[in-house]
């Protein structure tokens, strides 16, 4: 669908900067929002359509498999594990840190 840019990571996509919110063994429920082990995840509304009004298919939920992580961004328009599900931990390249932020 063209949501990820071309890059050098597996699958020929560019790296993502996301927050790991669940790891192996945790239970993910996805309806209108995301719940992890029964607790609602803030800023996790699940979009039914994208900005071009195309239907968004979301991850069905379930137990996060061994050696995978569930990724999230507080930006509701983010393409993250709400839609593509858990990803292998060995795909993590490193830790992103804030260098500078600006809030008018």
Q: Could you please describe the fold and organization of this structure?
A:
- This protein is mainly beta and 104 residues long.
- The chain has one domain: Umud Fragment, subunit A (Ribbon), CATH 2.10.109.
- Helix content is 4%, strand content 27%.
- The chain contains one helix and eight strands, in the order βββββββαβ.
- The strands form two sheets. It has a four-stranded antiparallel beta sheet, with no helix packed on it.
- The longest helix is centred in the last third of the chain and has 4 residues, at 81-84.
- The chain is globular.
- The model has no long low-confidence stretch (mean pLDDT 87).
CATH topology description: Umud Fragment, subunit A
Portion in helices? under 10%
The total count of helices amounts to 1
Query: Under the CATH scheme, which class?
Result: Mainly Beta
- Which architecture per CATH? Ribbon
**Contiguous uncertain segments of 5+ residues:** none
Number of domain modules: 1
Largest sheet: 4 strands, antiparallel
In terms of DSSP E residues, the strand content is 25-35%
The gyration radius over C-alpha positions equals 14 Å
Give the SSE map:
Blueprint: E1 6-9, E2 19-23, E3 27-30, E4 34-36, E5 39-40, E6 61-63, E7 68-72, H1 81-84, E8 87-88
Antiparallel strand pairs: 2-7, 3-4, 3-6, 4-5, 7-8
Write a compact overview of the structure shown.
The chain has 104 residues and is mostly beta strands. The chain has one helix spanning 81-84; strands spanning 6-9, 19-23, 27-30, 34-36, 39-40, 61-63, 68-72, 87-88.
